[in-house]
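Supplementary Methods S3. Complex input for the adenosine monophosphate-bound model.
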Amino acid sequence: MRSHSHGHGHAEQGMLSVEEAYDRVMASFGPLEPVATPLMDALGLVLAVDVDSPLDLPPLANSGMDGYAVRSEDIPDASPDSPRQLRVIGLVAAGQRPSQDVGPGTAIRIMTGATVPGGADTVVPFEETDEVQRRQAGLSLDEIAILSGLPVGRNVRPAGEDVGRGQRVLDAGTVVRPAEIGVMASLGLERVKVIRRPVVAILATGDELVAAGGELDGGQIYDSNSFSVAASVVACGGVPKHLGIARDNMEDLENKLRAVAGSDLAITSAGVSRGDYDMVKDVLTSQGDMNFWSVRMRPAKPLAFGHLRTGGDEKVPLLGLPGNPVSAMVAFEMFARPAIRTMLGRRPSPRPTVEGVLTGPIYNEDGRRVYARVQVETRNGTYYATPTGPQGSNILTSMSRANGLAICPEDLPHKQAGDKVRIIMLDWNEEVFV
Ligand code: AMP
Ligand code: MG
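Predicted complex, serialized as structure tokens:
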């Protein structure tokens, strides 16, 4: 790879590759501890324990059809031409306990899901009896003609067919989806142990920021990073804790940062570049072990990471995102999301990537890895990636128009229309495939 001093001299020395920065951040994270939670709250979380079945499922043999429970040996070779006549001695519906057994020459009318009575080993569906004809003719259902000789076990769901008592049903480490919620409910479980969600404290910094709902004065802007970051935290399974906006002075920053205590991760935005009012660096350095890095990527070059002392022995990992709204989101994507997923016990970076064809150029002016916001579509089985207009790290709407980040590697000055690109899919949904 060529060198990228570009006259920045000293400042470039701290420039890390994306991979190096990622490794350094990720070295601080592992799965959090388990908590017992109501079943529904486990959705999207990771099982902390193996789940073994406390029962047979189904608990008792039951019918797979509406029909007649019979003894297979009573109906050998039955057919429409040679029906077998059986005496109907009762009825059993789902949830009922059969009150009698099926003996030779008898049948019990049975509904789907109802327990198969003792003695019976086969269920003959209504359609394979003369029930409809009998009803139409006004005949009683005390007797029934079986029109089909069915083998032992037909339409009977044996006890334990799905799961046997004591059987391992779900492994620790499984991500709980609706199907797993259903499986655990079918075992009668009300609560389950999962790895808990991380609490992520979020602090915006900047004298120019106004909270949503306030009035803008000259030179001010609304704080969007708190919201895009909090929403990103929720989207990847964390619990955001809003610490508000800190002004660009030591006192306010130190005050607001106190509320970080007890969180699993703190995320700040802005104040980590080289400007006159970039206080976050100073505060973090004095209150923790903090590293400031430039990462060889665009957007999101400036990044801080380290641990903040919050009293006693407690240290909370802190990720200082850049202030520009797109940079903040892309840095979150590359570093915070994998950290949060790791704490959740999930695989850190499972975003699907695809190879697609660019429909417009991506420029790389200074040897950084470029993550260009693109709209990805498929046409005739090929992915096409269209850059979403101006790529400035302040243009937040370009993020909203994008469903992927197309990568231009460090060592390429540009990618042109028609070139192949690797794309990180931020959204992987139906809209991609219209
Ligand atoms: P800084 O890192 O403080 O130099 O900020 C870089 C840019 O990001 C500046 O244009 C800031 O106004 C902008 N910015 C910083 N924080 C936020 C925020 N919370 N929401 C929106 N824009 C921000
Ligand atoms: Mg600032």
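The first strand starts at residue 15 and ends at 16. The chain is about 15% helix and 30% strand.
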